[in-house]
Amino acid sequence: MAEQVFFYGTLMTGFDRRRRAGIEGKLSYTGRGYIHAALFDLGIYPAAVPNDDARVHGEVYEVLEPGPVLGVLDEIEGYSPSSPDSSLYVRTRVPAMIDDGRVMDVWVYFYNAPLGRAPLIASGDYLEHVRVR
Predict the structure, then answer these.
(1) How confident is the model at residue 132, as a pLDDT?
(2) What pLDDT is attached to residue 56?
(3) Prediction pTM value
(4) Distances 31 to 9, 13, 96, 98, 117 between C-alpha atoms, Å
């Protein structure tokens, strides 16, 4: 089974982060969908935290070269597999509901630090939030 990753912030379409990180050609778009989480605005990027009663909308991509791509994503997200407790984000596998009705297990990066006074993004959609902010 292919590895899938869920992007809900600046790695989504509309931002240039995937290209700048050198992983654009190592991902294949699967579709839009959502995960069960709550989304917060940290200023220059969002933070998702697990929450069964909320939805975060984003994009799912098949990872064509899992080792190198996940390594780059881990670095971007401040995740160290050897010390997850002290990582800024932690990479976790969760189910994503794809807009076409499929459910897929995906890797997602959940925020792992205090949220402080970060405002909740009630829509769960960072792209929509950025457009009206």
Answers:
(1) 84
(2) 98
(3) 0.95
(4) 15, 11, 11, 6, 32
- Beta carbons within 8 Å of 88's beta carbon, 6+ residues apart: 77, 78, 79, 111, 112, 113
Tell me the C-alpha distance between 31 and 121, whole Å.
22
Taking the CA of residue 111 as centre, how many other CA atoms within 13 Å lie in the half-sphere pointing to its CB? 19
- Specify whether domain 4-132 bears CATH 3.90.226.10: no
Percentage of the chain lying above the pLDDT 70 cut: 99
Q: Locate the domains of the chain by residue range.
A: 4-132
**What pairs with residue 24 in β-bridges?**
none
Dist. CA 85–CA 88, nearest whole Å: 8
DSSP for residue 116: T
- Tell me how far apart the alpha carbons of residues 11 and 19 are, in angstroms, rounded to a whole number: 9
